[in-house]
Amino acid sequence: MTFPICQIEFARNCENASSNMKCPTKKREKGDKKISHGNRVIIGLPLNQDKQGDTMGRRQLTLEKHCRGSHFTWGERLKLQYYYAGSNGYRKERRPTVLGKIFQKSRKTISRELRRGMVEHVLSEIPFSRIEYNAEHAQIDAEEKMKYKGPLPKSGKHYTLVQKISELILEKQYSPYAVLMKLDEKGLWPEGLRICEKTLYNWIEAGDIPGVTIEDLPRKGKMKRRKGHGGKKKHANVEFAARSIEDRPKEVLKRLKAGHWEGDTVYSSKNGQRECLLTLVERKSRMELIVKIPDRTAKSVKKGLDWIEKQFGSRLFRKIFLSITFDNGVEFSDVLGLENSVLTRSRRTVLYFAHPYCSSERGTNENHNGIIRRFLPKGTDFADIKAKSIRKIQDWMNTYPRKILNGSTPLRVFKEEFELEDLSIKLLEAC
What we know:
Blueprint: E1 35-37, E2 40-42, H1 74-85, H2 96-103, H3 107-116, E3 118-122, E4 129-133, H4 135-146, H5 159-170, H6 176-186, H7 197-205, H8 238-242, H9 250-253, E5 260-267, E6 276-282, E7 288-293, H10 298-312, H11 314-320, E8 323-326, H12 335-339, E9 350-353, H13 363-375, H14 387-398, H15 410-418
Parallel strand pairs: 5-8, 8-9
Antiparallel strand pairs: 1-2, 3-4, 5-6, 6-7
Helix pairs in contact: 1-4, 2-3, 10-11
GO molecular function: nucleic acid binding; transposase activity
GO cellular component, one term: cytosol
InterPro entries: Integrase_cat-core, RNaseH-like_sf, RNaseH_sf, Transposase-Integrase, Transposase_IS30-like
């Protein structure tokens, strides 16, 4: 399809320019300055005191910063035309990849814009026509299409809701799913509005939630899959091999019954720091218990588990801790000491051990340790962390709405499983 000749009158944008004026060279002229726009530097636009134009009639055009998914503005289209034609003092550039870096847009966005804005200029001599990008035609086409655009996003109509979402993500470190569950629980939805998880992700990616980006989400909006290790798996310790994870009942693997736990230690990577955390997570409810211990020795781990038993009492502990699965760390080598009660000297639980270098066999525990690292990054000196701060992390994890629990919280599911709603256990109460 051909269009009639479209004469571009630069006088609309460049008051002192004539239509046949050409820049004599593509190099920077004396007096020209680099204009920095964020991480972009555009060469060839002189800066005069009046900031209106220069002696050649060129006018400074400033690119506006836009969030992901934004549309081209008239100024950006005009600048794209100058780059594409190599006119008005701009070096000629037609590669979408390079133009994408200049305009901070994707290569595909640039390609689409160029395709939609192409017109055929009729010439009086060979080759009689030339296909060029025309900003005016592209702008008219875009404005025409905007007439058929749908209503504004719902996020723009509900300021209070958007502020609450921003608060939960930035201050409470909630994921989009957890945000939705919390809004459901508190009844904070405006009348006639309830969005899904995908819509909330779209709002964040489009910049509709002030101050919130994908980087602010717990996992930066990405999930990693753990790779299993092939080959035959063996235990280095004979006693660990006798309590292999392979011998666990099938009900443990399928999470059919509550009372089966996974355990590990979280410690600082800096040399000379001895204090660490003993972490335990119940496989079905995802209930988390965190205890600070003096060091990563078998004696300290036993004392940590003994302290937990004293909080629950011997009888309730045996009901709640049917089994615990650890890794092959030397801190868990006192098998009998960990299995036997500090109160009655009888067996209080059964231990199982995962295969070496197979952290995926304790996936829930590893995932929870990653959550703890959000609050206590690697290198943190646990000697400076008070028990109250650790307790707050535990409470946050246990009251966090989980998608795998259909929006419920680990604490709620845990109490329901063991009928603890009417019992007052200090270890489970909010700090």
